[in-house]
């Protein structure tokens, strides 16, 4: 993604920003990996930089995180990403973690879709068996109140992803609104 241009959509967790690329895709990118487009280009680096794990300070009021920054994990779902490995960047909104794949892409993944890479692989479940319960039990959408804006998508709604190209054509279920004008999709 080095050299790509985008627009900052807003802040993200940790020291990062949500950046929308010209393709329309939105990625959470660490502050040290963002440069003002008007600034001169940095010197080329011969090898890919690996982000340093973020330090997470624990207090008595904090809950212990299921995964820690820098931990290697295996992605269990969605089916298009199942079996891929990534590195935990840090906690994300809700019950999820930001996971950086070997390609450098960072995805917010639900905790139940992640497993410590050192743990034994879970048994394979046929795709048809997984799809049937999800279709039979859609999530209930919250009724909008006077103060709520009408959402473009509602939780539980089935959608097809149009972009980025790696996910184009995949189907998912709206989990709820995310930062800016985006939605979390499972």
Outline the structure in words.
The chain has 186 residues and is mainly beta. The protein has 1 helix and 11 strands; from the N terminus they run ββββββββαβββ. It has one helix at residues 127-136, and strands spanning 6-12, 16-21, 26-30, 72-75, 85-92, 96-101, 106-110, 114-116, 158-160, 171-177, 183-185. The strands form 3 sheets. Strands 7-6-5-4-8 form a 5-stranded antiparallel sheet, with no helix packed on it. Strands 1-2-3 form a 3-stranded antiparallel sheet, with no helix packed on it. A hairpin with a 4-residue loop joins strand 6 and strand 7 (106-110). The longest helix has 10 residues, at 127-136. The model is unreliable at 46-61 and 127-147 (pLDDT under 50).
Short key terms for the protein model shown above:
186 residues, 1 helix, 11 strands, five-stranded antiparallel beta sheet, globular, 31% strand, three-stranded antiparallel beta sheet, mainly beta
Topology:
Elements: E1 6-12, E2 16-21, E3 26-30, E4 72-75, E5 85-92, E6 96-101, E7 106-110, E8 114-116, H1 127-136, E9 158-160, E10 171-177, E11 183-185
Antiparallel strand pairs: 1-2, 2-3, 4-5, 4-8, 5-6, 6-7, 9-10, 10-11
């Amino acid at each position: 993604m080095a050299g790509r241009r985008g627009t900052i959509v807003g802040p993200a967790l940790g020291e990062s920003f949500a950046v929308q690329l010209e393709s329309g895709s939105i990625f959470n990118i660490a502050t040290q990996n963002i440069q003002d487009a008007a600034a001169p280009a940095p010197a080329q680096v011969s090898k890919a930089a690996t982000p340093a794990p973020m330090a997470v300070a624990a207090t008595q009021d904090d809950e212990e995180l299921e995964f820690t920054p820098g931990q290697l994990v295996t992605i269990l779902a969605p089916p298009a990403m199942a079996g891929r490995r990534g590195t935990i960047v840090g906690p994300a909104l809700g019950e999820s973690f930001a996971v950086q794949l070997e390609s450098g892409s960072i995805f917010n993944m639900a905790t139940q879709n992640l497993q410590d890479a050192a743990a034994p692989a879970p048994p394979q479940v046929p795709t048809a068996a997984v799809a049937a319960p999800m279709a039979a039990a859609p999530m209930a959408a919250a009724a909008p109140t006077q103060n709520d804006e009408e959402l473009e998508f509602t939780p539980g709604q089935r959608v097809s992803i149009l972009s980025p190209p790696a996910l184009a054509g995949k189907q998912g279920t709206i989990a709820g609104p995310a930062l800016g004008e985006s939605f979390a999709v499972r």
